[in-house]
Amino acid sequence: MKINKITYLIFASLFLLSIPGFSIAQTATGQNSVEKAVQEPPKFKVKFFEIKHRNPDSLRLALSALGSGSRGSEMSANNQLRTLTVRDFPENITAIEEALKRLDVPEQSPASLEFQIHLISASTGPEPKVQVSKNLEPVITQLKSSLRFTNFRYISTALSRANDGGKVDSSGISGSLFPAPSGITNNPDNPSFYMYSLGTIKLMQDSTGKETVQIDNFRFGVTVPVRSSGGGVQYRDIGINSPLTLREGEMAVVGTASISGSDEAIIVVVSVNKIK
Q1: Number of structural domains found in the chain
Q2: CATH number at residue 65
Q3: CA–CA dist 142, 151 (Å, integer)
Q4: How far apart are the first and last CA of the chain?
Q5: Are residue 170 and residue 252 in the same domain, yes or no?
Q6: pTM above 0.85?
Q7: Per-residue model confidence as pLDDT tens for the chain (276 residues)
Q8: Which one of 103, 121, 153 terminates a domain?
Q9: How far, in Å, CA of 57 to CA of 104, rounded?
Q10: Any residues with CB less than 8 A from the CB of 12 and at least 6 apart, and which?
Q11: Do both 268 and 179 map to the same domain?
């Protein structure tokens, strides 16, 4: 009977040792006792963050994925006090703190851009020499080598400003601003009308990392009075419609606008500068 008890104790001990979390320890009296190993879970910590620039509740939504999601963890925002309170494991709080350094920054104002629309008259007839600004001289030199026109005259420059993502629309009465090609009258009672528009303006980077300004649709038009065969006056539209990509400080020849049969045309040159 005594042997059976010893055998039973041995098998019982081996069974308990096979159960995770249990161990057999020897007491001070030499007897074995069964102890359960209890592993304490990591403890939560609480940290307050002062939000300086962004909306606290928006940051809470953006950072929620960095929390552990464990029972008892919590992230709360107070828009009035501009604070974010996090209760979570230390490693999760560290990750949230690092993300806040990148996200809680001042919002950047959209870049402001200044556009210059230069108008140049081109013709095949003689014209008096008119001084142009130095920045347009290389453009006119290029035009002389690539177009059939022999004479070029600076007309005017229109100035417009817009933010990145914005648009530009401008129009007006030109009077005698534009040259009078054959068949066009400059009678004050029959003025010319002009308009130009820059569609959605986007400040981007090209493949080399340089900034470019993309305009999804650039439009320039002039409505001019034309003398009809019966002696009356009819209005006719001339203009340019095209997407446009610009680099800061560069002159871009957008195109020419002319009336069929006329020996004169208006050349549109556009440049852009980023306002610091």
Answers
A1: 3
A2: 3.30.1370.120
A3: 12
A4: 99
A5: yes
A6: no
A7: 555 555 555 555 555 455 455 444 454 444 444 444 445 556 899 999 999 999 999 999 999 999 999 999 999 999 999 999 999 999 999 999 999 999 999 887 788 999 999 888 887 766 555 566 778 888 888 888 888 888 888 888 889 999 998 999 998 876 554 445 445 555 666 777 889 999 999 988 877 878 899 999 999 988 877 767 666 777 888 888 999 999 988 889 998 877 665 677 888 999 999 886
A8: 103
A9: 12
A10: none
A11: yes
> Which residues in 53-81 are b (16+ Cβ under 10 Å) and which e?
ebebeebbeebeebbeeeeeeebebeeee
Structure tokens at 193: 């009308």
Written as six digits, the tokens of 77 are 């925002």
Query: Can you read off the two tokens belonging to residue 166?
Result: 């914005």
- Half-sphere CA count of 28, side-chain side, radius 13 A: 0
Give the residue numbers spanning the domain of 8.
2-36
Distances (CA, A) of 66 to 77, 99, 105: 15, 9, 19
Q: What is the rounded distance in angstroms from the CA atom of residue 271 to the CA atom of residue 251?
A: 5
Residues 123 and 98 in one domain: no
Q: Are residues 148 and 50 in the same domain?
A: no
What burial letters (b/e) apply to 118-127, b meaning 16+ CB within 10 Å? Answer: bbbbbbeeee
Residue 234: strand pairing partners: 226
Say yes or no: 59 and 146 in one domain: no
**Do 133 and 241 share a domain, yes or no?**
yes
Q: Could you tell me the two tokens for 103?
A: 């996200």
Considering the domain architecture, whether residues 60 and 185 belong to the same structural domain is answered as no
How many C-beta atoms surround the C-beta of residue 35 within 10 A?
10
